[in-house]
TrEMBL record:
Belongs to the methyltransferase superfamily. LaeA methyltransferase family. Transmembrane segments: none annotated. It comes from the Eukaryota. GO terms for molecular function: methyltransferase activity. CDD domains: AdoMet_MTases (cd02440). This is Podospora anserina S mat+ genomic DNA chromosome 6, supercontig 4. SUPFAM superfamilies: S-adenosyl-L-methionine-dependent methyltransferases (SSF53335). Pfam families: Methyltransf_23.
Amino acid sequence: MEVLHELCWLAHDNRIALCPEEKYRNVLDLGTGDGTWAIEFADMHEEATVIGVDMHRFQPTFVPPNCEFQIDNLEEDWTWSGCFDFIHARMLSGCFKKPRHIVSSAQLTPGGYFEVTDILYTPKSDDGTLVSNSPLRTWANQLASAAREIGRPLIGDASEYLDMLSEAGFVDIHVVVKNLPTNSWPNDKTLKEIGKISSLALELETISMALFTHGLGWDPEAVIATCAHVREEFKSPDVHAYFPLIIVYGRKPCRPGSVEER
């Protein structure tokens, strides 16, 4: 997970978040995972209280005094008594049956921000080196099919998050799209570095195992064999493939019911 955090850090132009810098007081990190983002944000913003929430507890016990972790099911009614001025989410595609409910449940103070970062598992290539029936494209199609089968569809386009935030009443919504090369094939220095990290951070077996076994009924051995085959193309410098990484953030209106520019 720390490798994934490094990947997002580079893709965010060496920033912890893209929404405007504020003196945040109450921050919530949805699906915090190992808590790396929450811990780093707490270290950088000593004035803030940071809560990382996940369904599983595998975060470290030694954390900054202004950071804590909680176990909760975000698909149930939120139980926090107060509001947050910044809610952060990362890599939640396929985690929820009703992602719109997650966005609409965001308990933000007026003027607070919601920011989500996600990888779109729709591999692309601009020069034709990733053919339509390639192992990587086939894997991506199977992944999307498996997610639909278990009722937790993957986010397919940045416009989905844009619509979710807009429907939930957010304003000043921004969409940023970055490219995550599958390996170090780009000539650009920064993209080459991102590609090196992508080849480590995007663990195909970890991404695929639960979805393929539960959604498609595959044996674990079949998943491992398929991922090994896909990885050959994933790491081939002759295949100039990349995944879009999207960052979408928006602001809760300062005055309830007011009309603000979207």
